[in-house]
Amino acid sequence: MPLNRRRFIVLGGLALGACSSAAVPRRRIAQGGGAIWRREDERVKGAETWGRGDAETTERLAGQEIGPAGLYAPVRGDVRAVVISDMNSRYGATDYRAEVLTGIELLPGWQPDLVICAGDMIAAQKISLTSAEVAAMWESFDRQILTPIRAANLPFALTIGNHDASSLKRQGEYVFAVDRQAATQYWQAHLTALALPYVEATGFPYYYSFKQNDIFYLIWDASAADVPAEQLAWAERSLSSPEAQSAKLRIAIGHLPFFAISQGRDRAGEILNHSEALRSLLETYRVHTYISGHHHAYFPAHAGQLQLLHCGALGSGPRTWLNRVDTAMQTLTVLDIFLEDASTVYTTYSMNTLQVVDAQQLPRQIVGPTGRLLRRDVASADLSQAERNQQYVPSAN
Ligand SMILES: [Zn+2]
């Protein structure tokens, strides 16, 4: 559907209170019949070329306020990615929550160069699920998630999550061999369908790299707590290559994070082992940002020289941060990258309200079992004495 004319879209399943005028300062919204109707304004002219990720499109769109009709429209960077994560419902489910389907429907409205998924696209990782059941989940993902994204001409990058195909091994064998086989089969059939300019893809979908708009992306298999040793050697070779080092920016993506940020995830197996060594590897080769999922809570952080984008869940089971009592929310993050000063801006939407999450309301720091993590706008020197004294309190659940 061309976007350079007025049109109406219906977004079902959203809370009626979601779109207060405060949430949508730029566009008027009318409402009726239990659905929310949004009128598109004239701003998105020229959108017919969105998502191709080519330099000309990117240059033309940079600096413009661009977002789906009715939502806050962030200023577009030189490069824009929309980052989604943790979309699955209960084990074995072939359906997706309304927030997921709405998020997918909204994606083209941000006119990104790329959609990044930080893992957990289906709901496997249960031994009793059969090959047919796992294949049915990938079919459903294909129909409801990937097909609309590719129909909108948006390139799609993914990292494998524990619910997709955990790399956990016991006595040298994959514990979830059925999942592993199904994911390999599904994704290898889609290797060329994702519109990614691969640099290396022999390990796809588990580990691979691509370069788009002068940004080098490295994806490793963090679907369990240990990134396999051979992949670390590959990552080092890959990140030190001229292809990576000559890029204006390097971004790494894996499902598990370095730090525990949410309740119920502050234990071994839910965060990467040897995280300091892994972070040091990324820092050595000047990786700008590590994008992760799995903890189901949005938290923009930094550690050393590395920016850490912890994605919230778009699907079931959002969680709140350690040591907090906030209501958990489903989120989606627009990542704008400004190449000149290598800076990034995150615009994160609560998919329950469609309002932008106020970063100032997020914890200033999260103290977990492996250390203290600061929000990206907070420096160590900014911490009060009380904050410095804050100790890790294990979550109850
Ligand atoms: Zn996960």
Annotation keywords:
397 residues; disordered N terminus; five-stranded mixed beta sheet; 21% helix; alpha/beta
Characterise this structure.
This protein is α/β, with parallel strands linked by helices. It has a single domain, classed as 4-Layer Sandwich (Purple Acid Phosphatase, chain A, domain 2). The protein is 21% helix and 23% strand. The chain has nine helices and 19 strands. The strands form four sheets. It has a nine-stranded mixed beta sheet. Strands 6-5-4-16-17 form a five-stranded mixed beta sheet, covered by helices on one side. β7 (169-170) and β8 form a beta hairpin. α3 runs parallel beside α5. The N and C termini lie far apart (46 Å). Bound molecules: zinc ion (ZN). Residues 120, 161-163, 255, 294 line the site of zinc ion.
The CATH architecture term is 4-Layer Sandwich
Shape: globular
SSE run? EEEHEHEHEHEEHEEEHHEHEEEEEEEH
Class of secondary structure makeup? alpha/beta
What small molecules does the structure contain?
Answer: zinc ion
Say which CATH homologous superfamily is assigned: Metallo-dependent phosphatases
What is the CATH third-level topology name?
Purple Acid Phosphatase, chain A, domain 2
Low-confidence stretches: 1-51
Any idea how many domains?
A: 1
Total count of helical runs of at least 4 residues: 9
Q: Kindly report the spatial arrangement of strands forming the biggest sheet.
A: 9-10-11-12-13-15-14-19-18
- The CATH class turns out to be Alpha Beta
**Would you report the number of β strands?**
19
| Radius of gyration, whole Å | 20 Å
Helicity level: 10-25%
Mean pLDDT figure: 87
End-to-end CA span: 46 Å
Strand content: 15-25%
Largest sheet: 9 strands, mixed
